[in-house]
Amino acid sequence: MKFWGVYKLTVGSLAAAETVAGMLRTAYPPETSIWGAFTLAASVLLAIDGLAELFEWVHRWVFVAIAVVIPIAISTVSDDWPQRLWMFSIAMGFSEWVFQELKRSTARTDIGALACCAVLAVSLANTTVMVFRTYWDEPQFWPLGQIFKFMAPIALPWTLILIMLWRSGHEVAGRGLDPREDVALAAEAVDR
After folding, report:
1. What is the pLDDT of residues 24-44, one digit of tens each?
2. Which is more confidently placed, 147 or 180?
3. Of 129, 121, 105, residue with least CA distance to 183
4. Is the dihedral of CA 31, 34, 35, 38 positive or negative?
5. Per-residue model confidence as pLDDT tens digits over 61-102
6. Is the dihedral of CA 163, 36, 27, 85 positive or negative?
7. Contact at 8 Å (CB) between 118 and 161?
8. 116: buried, middle or exposed (CB in 10 Å: 19+, 13-18, 0-12)?
9. Which of these, 32, 88, 110, 122, could form a disulfide with 168 (CB 3.0-4.6 Å)?
10. Beta-carbon contacts of residue 47 (< 8 Å; ≥ 6 apart)
11. Alpha carbon distance 101, 61 (integer Å)
């Protein structure tokens, strides 16, 4: 169980770092595209889900507070305090609270991870399409070595996200448990 907590934390942190870096590299302001905000939120919430899995003994409200504070911390580093930051922070906290409540009431520990990975997959699909469009717009074909260099940065995130999507989808779907075991897990989650 701890392995998946580390996995979620790692994938979420890497995706958040790349999202922030991409937002800083772009010539367009973040206000022109909502995808940056969704991708950043999904990345951060996935990392927090990993933390929650690693530190199960910590009260769930601590993770809600972390979700609220992270966007504010990112804005502090960039010295930019847009008015929408507060709404974004509240939305992040609310999303984390919803994930924690669903986890507690349904005994499905990966509901939040499934939602976050789905958002990350859609965002990565958008990026992948743009990268392939760049490749096909080139007037000549690239040598095989250059194609591998081109594909490696795309293949790694897809692999990480698809593994997490498969695992969390499998867990949320019920893992084929006997209904009595499923009820027992739900009762155990409510007792926590």
Report:
1. 776 555 555 677 788 888 899
2. 147
3. 105
4. positive
5. 999 999 988 888 877 766 666 677 788 888 999 999 999 888
6. negative
7. no
8. buried
9. 110
10. 8, 9, 11, 12, 13, 16
11. 10
